[in-house]
């Protein structure tokens, strides 16, 4: 079985999972007010400040408001948007995304790899708590966005890397994302892994079984170690998705695709198989849909809700 067949089936399963089939907006500039909550004068001011920051430091900061998170968490949406747009320089990963979803009442500061020492999670959370949320709670969205963005600009422009002691002090007792907020995110991996495990068991393919077990098993073990809620959410989800995968594995097209990669034209075999591999793999370029430099983020940053 060819590796691209596995990838195709996995992506097909992902596309049917609630919240993943989302259409991300295209960047229109440094300030992208898709929710129409930023007045023109504030937008112009922020755009000028962000342009100055980029010209003097090469750091890229994008401000985005959206009407909807399309059923995902603000963390997942921000991470996907950051990667899709490629915020920051490709070799430096020095980008920051400030995402506001007024209808879900969520805000997120997503930080690129290269700026995590300057704007660590604890400091990003402090900006949200001190500069953004108080104004959002008073329905002053322009004021909160302006204050938070200017604070981020000030921090990034100084380019001062925090010491471990300073980071520890910021993180002490100020966790920005409760444990239960990880459940929906981890649930995506659990669901995909459980389906793949079910298909692998039914079709007797070692790849599906091993891939699914690790892809879904590790997140569920992580969640179980952090909160008892996983027993009532992720465990039933895993069982249900495993049963779905086991049923899907009975279909000739799925079985043959997993066993020999010939889309249902291959011969039948009763034994287990790991499948054949192919070296003609594809790579993701992470191309930006805007003028951003192609940077990436590893999920660093902080979130807030009002």
Task: Give a concise summary.
It contains eleven helices and five strands, in the order αβαβαββααααααααβ. With 306 residues, it is of the alpha/beta class. It is elongated.
What this model shows, in words?
- The protein is an alpha/beta fold and 306 residues long.
- The protein is built from 11 helices and 5 strands.
- A 5-stranded mixed sheet has the order 1-2-3-4-5, sandwiched between helices.
- The longest helix is centred in the middle third of the chain and has 22 residues, at 182-203.
- The chain starts with a helix and ends with a strand.
* Most strands sheet: 5 strands, mixed
**What is the SS-derived class?**
alpha/beta
User: How many helix segments?
Assistant: 11
Low-confidence stretches: 16-21, 262-267, 276-289
Mean pLDDT: 80
Which value, in Å, is the CA radius of gyration? Answer: 22 Å
- Global shape: elongated
Helix content: 40-55%
Strand order of the largest sheet: 1-2-3-4-5
Q: What is the H/E string?
A: HEHEHEEHHHHHHHHE
Strand tally: 5
Percent range for β-strand residues: 5-15%
Termini separation: 50 Å
């Amino acid at each position: 079985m060819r590796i691209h067949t596995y990838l195709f089936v996995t992506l097909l399963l992902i596309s049917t999972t609630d919240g993943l089939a989302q259409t991300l907006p295209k960047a229109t500039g440094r300030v992208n007010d898709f929710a129409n909550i930023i007045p023109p004068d504030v937008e112009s001011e922020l755009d000028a400040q962000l342009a100055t920051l980029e010209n003097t430091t090469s750091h890229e900061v994008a401000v985005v408001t959206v009407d909807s998170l399309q059923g995902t968490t603000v963390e997942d949406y921000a991470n996907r948007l950051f990667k899709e747009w490629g915020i920051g320089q490709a070799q430096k990963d020095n980008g920051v995304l400030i995402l506001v979803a007024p209808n879900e009442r969520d805000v997120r500061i997503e930080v690129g790899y290269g700026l995590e020492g300057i704007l660590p999670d604890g400091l990003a959370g402090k900006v949200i708590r001190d500069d953004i949320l108080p104004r959002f709670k008073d329905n002053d969205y322009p004021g909160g966005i302006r204050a938070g963005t200017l604070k981020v600009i000030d921090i990034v422009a100084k380019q001062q890397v925090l010491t471990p002691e300073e980071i520890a002090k910021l993180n002490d007792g100020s966790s920005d994302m409760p444990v239960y907020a990880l459940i929906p995110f981890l649930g995506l991996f659990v669901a995909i892994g459980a389906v793949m495990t079910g298909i692998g068991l039914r079709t007797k393919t070692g790849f599906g079984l091993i891939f699914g077990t690790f892809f879904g098993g590790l997140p569920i073990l992580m969640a179980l170690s952090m909160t008892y809620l996983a027993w009532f959410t992720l465990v039933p989800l895993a069982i249900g998705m495993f049963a779905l995968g086991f049923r899907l594995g009975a279909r000739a097209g799925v079985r043959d695709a997993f066993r020999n990669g010939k889309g249902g034209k291959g011969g039948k075999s009763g034994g287990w198989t790991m499948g054949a591999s192919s070296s003609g793999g594809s790579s993701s370029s992470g191309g930006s849909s805007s003028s951003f430099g192609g940077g990436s983020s590893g999920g660093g940053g902080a979130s807030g809700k009002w």
